[in-house]
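Below is a typical protein record.
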Amino acid sequence: MDRAVVTVEKALELYGAPVYVRKQIVHNRHVVEDLERRGAIFVEETDEVPEGALVIFSAHGVAPVVHDEAAERNLRTIDATCPLVTKVHHEARRFSGEGYQILLIGHEGHEEVVGTSGQAPDYITLVDGPDHVDEVSVDDADKVVWLSQTTLSVDETMETVDRLRGRFPNLLSPPSDDICYATQNRQAAVKLMAASSDLVIVVGSGNSSNSVRLVEVALDAGAGAAYRVDNAGEIDEAWLDGVAVVGVTSGASVPESLVDGVLGWLADRGFGDVETVTAAEESLVFSLPQELRRDLKNSTSLG
């Protein structure tokens, strides 16, 4: 998610304001408002972008038809789709090309699901969690594969897969797990700390799927209570009544400053002894979109 935000920041530096962004670049209100102050203009659809202008596609990815719409309006585009989402897009095109019916596990209406479904709309069936498995119908039970939105609960996704496999024993799995590594690592860390936490605070916006999932994971793992907040200003001091241990985590697209703000708020109220819980070290770094890298290189050469 940092890659997408840096993409907008670099575009503003290189091209100047305004820079148009289709949808929220990441699902975090603080990040979006900060970029707006710096000259980014967020739109819902490409037809809101002036002809010939620059538009950045968000981290959640878009359907091929969106690229076509941009081309029709002569828009310059930078595709900031998360590479892990791009991987799912490649899988959707590959499996549909091989004639597989794709059962896409995800939340209806989520931007990532819309973008992935658009890769092969005639071959994709949405499965919105384990409770919807019984509603699924397939044409050929021997030619079916599952893919998933990258920001889901790992446990719920695998429960959905298990139920699907109960109905379709020959269900094929993708070559590698679709759930984002940052999402998985945060969920694993929350599980480690939840059982010993009277309260877990998740920093993240309400439209952030991975932030909302962290609250559910914390409660399922034994936390006494769990709440999501955008920032320290949304914490209810009453949540601390009778609480000895507070766990703090954040969604994948949350600026560190917001987490520090929550830790500072807690420290001011006697929770100043901090112990870090790490489930895995994250060392994966993605390069910026190629369109931006090219222009940055040309700019450096000219300078």
